[in-house]
Write a structure and sequence with these properties.
Layout (H helix, E strand, L loop, with lengths): L2 E4 L6 H10 L16 E4 L10 H14 L3 E3 L3 H10 L10 H9 L3 H16 L5 E3 L4 E3 L14 H9 L1 E6 L5 E4 L10 E4 L8 E3 L2 E3 L9 E7 L3 E6 L15
Parallel strand pairs: 1-2, 2-3, 5-8, 8-10
Antiparallel strand pairs: 1-11, 4-5, 6-7, 9-10, 11-12
């Protein structure tokens, strides 16, 4: 099992392409393919906020669904876009407005095609990926040891949003407990969701959301080597979007 897991892309297609090329993937067929058979993994939040969300959907759908040479676990932004495409009433805010603007600029035929591709990708992917006989888990916001193998609504909330209890910071953002500090499992948990200035390894966990869409970096961790690859963002840097304290 040789897999390169990429953090939250959020529509930053140029950085996604650059990072895969840096890791030896070629785009001759229009999607990244590795000559030695390595595959890509995605921690979710493919879309929203960045400039090219629909392009990211196209490529990830092709890799995961049509060619079966990548693995994807959805994030909370993916869940919200799925609900939007399903016709549910969702607030078009917190980044969804950029994806919706891209979508609404298409003709109705192309809208149907991209909507079907994304819904297909979402419906055919598990809430989190258990790989390499349980030695590797890809989960958007992480997962507790005792939740692995479970799929209740409580587990879904944890995987999509992290360890939250409903309380909020003064700025309105949710208070998220640092579940990684108390993680004692042997499986590697690779996740994103909370932007950090540098990829953060705690126990057998790796947060690889380095805030590309907020001007940080796009980061991948290569498994089983557990070494990092990254490329700088082309987006403006927004310091307050990064979490630097975990006390």
């Amino acid at each position: 099992m040789n897999i390169d897991i990429i953090g939250d892309i959020h529509g930053c297609f140029a950085e996604f392409k650059q990072l895969t090329e840096k890791m030896g993937y070629t785009w001759e067929t229009g999607v990244p393919v590795h000559p030695s058979g390595r595959i890509l993994g995605f921690v979710g939040d493919l879309t929203d906020r960045g400039p090219n969300s629909l392009q990211v959907i196209e490529v990830v759908h092709e890799l995961v669904i049509n060619q079966n040479i990548a693995r994807y676990a959805p994030g909370n932004h993916c869940n919200k876009l799925y609900r939007y495409f399903s016709g549910n009433k969702v607030q078009i805010s917190h980044g969804l407005e950029t994806t919706v603007a891209e979508y609404e600029s298409l003709n109705s035929r192309d809208q149907k095609k991209i909507r079907k591709k994304f819904m297909d990708l979402y419906e055919r992917s598990p809430l989190y990926q258990i790989m390499d006989e349980g030695r590797l888990i890809i989960a958007h916001a992480g997962i507790r040891s005792d939740y692995i193998g479970q799929y209740s609504s409580k587990v879904k909330t944890f995987v999509l949003y992290g360890d939250i209890n409903g309380s909020k910071h003064p700025d309105g953002s949710p208070v998220r407990k640092d579940w990684a500090k108390s993680y004692k499992g042997e499986s590697w948990i690779v996740y994103g969701h909370t932007p950090v200035p540098e990829a953060r390894q705690v126990n057998h966990t790796y947060n690889i959301d380095t805030g590309c869409v907020f001007g940080g970096k796009l980061t991948a961790v290569r498994y089983p080597e557990m070494d990092l690859q990254e490329v700088p963002s082309t987006m403006p840097y927004i310091a307050e979007k990064f979490r630097t304290s975990f006390d």
